[in-house]
Amino acid sequence: MSRRPYLNFSYFPGCSMATTATEANESIKKAAKVLGFNLMELEDWNCCGSSSAQTMCKNLSLGMAARNLSLAPPGWPLVAMCPRCLHYLRSAQECLRASPEAHHALEDHWGRPIPLDLEIVHFMEVLVRHGTDRLKKNLKRSLQGVKFVPYYGCTLFRPPRMQKEKYFQGEMENLLKMLGAEPVPDAYAYRCCGSFLSATDPEVVTPLVNEIIDSAVAARANCIVTACAMCQLNLEIRCTSKVRLPVFHFSEVLALALGAEDYEEWWPRHIVDPRPLLEELKLVA
Amino acid sequence: MSQPKLQEKSREFPAVEISGMNRALAADIRKRSGTQFQRCFQCQTCANGCPFVQAMDYPPNVIMRMLQYGMEQEVLRCSTIWICVGCHTCSSQCPMGIDIAAVMDSLRLKAVEAGAPIAKPNILDFHEEVLRSLERYGRAHKLSIMWRYKMQTGRWFSDLDVGLKMLARRKLELRPSRVKNIGEITELFKCYWRESK
Question: Which residue of A82, A152, A156, A197 to mutate against B (max B Cβ within 10 Å)?
Fold first, then answer.
């Protein structure tokens, strides 16, 4: 591992990972370090615009996402973990490619170049591309006994403007299988978590979230692993079912398998405490 | 057109008067969304797959038909366009390859621009509070968004338990995470429709 060269990436955490889901942020950094990926946080990044800017004003949405692109150091791929951030960053780049006028106007405005060939990738793509042998080599705790429902979240599973985006279906299963975990099919792994309706109309979201969790319980999974921090939050806070399952961030289980030791700080931030499960599986002391 | 009740399994719609329809609307939405919704032949795959259809006043396929008819008032005033979160289940399942979520996206924007009455004002309020947070900090600060949203909607005690749980788990940060060069962010908000009024 020490002789292996570090691969450089700039890293866009996004608002959720930086605040409500710091446990996801910490664990992704930990996992990246072990795997030899140097994630340099984008200096002074701002919100990607989110669905709110997208709903209210296209120019605002473009400007918010594009500013981040203007901050990215050249030559390093830009890595995001939040599927929605990834989507808005990629959409902005595509929009600027299609409109040289807007591209030049924004470049002039900020006095910084906005490279149109900047590669914008999801962390899972980085793992698939460079990580498989690194994963096997750095496996410290086998995830044996972890029976997970892979929950990608809509944006990763069904990319908007489908022909133009990459699909990730199956990758989470492949990666976590390598680390000893067992994917559980036959659950509502692809149903939407409710997104912002969880804040505005929780009574609509609760029955849907319950169906997702109940289906995972019925399929005999012992946890859900999600790639999206918003999904993670919604699945935890909106579930009112009697039997509940821990909902992990993908980066948490990854870092755990790679031998991270600071996990004690992650679990108290979960609404459904994952410690009983992890102790039962002897994954943590 | 009267609003059908929610949670009804089978819905009956009154006859539609299609004189006085707005043909320009269909062309406009086609251009904005970049998708060919005139291909829709009412197979209702979208309505069957949509996780939120029970909360909508019209299922997505009815929106497509109303658009084809040019029923501007109905499509801009319906709750469907606001309930849609863009999960793309419909778009990925449509046998005619219509990006239905993109149509909803375009209609939402059009409704805001046209100043149409908003069927789900609480959702619009929420988006506005998110934008206020972005304008101020450059990043979303969930605690102030939810605080101000509750002030707007007056639903103080709904969800209090969840809010407290999140606070206890330190999932609602007290202090916002901020962009240093906030000037660059505030400038971006000049184009925002609220400001240009």
Answer: A197
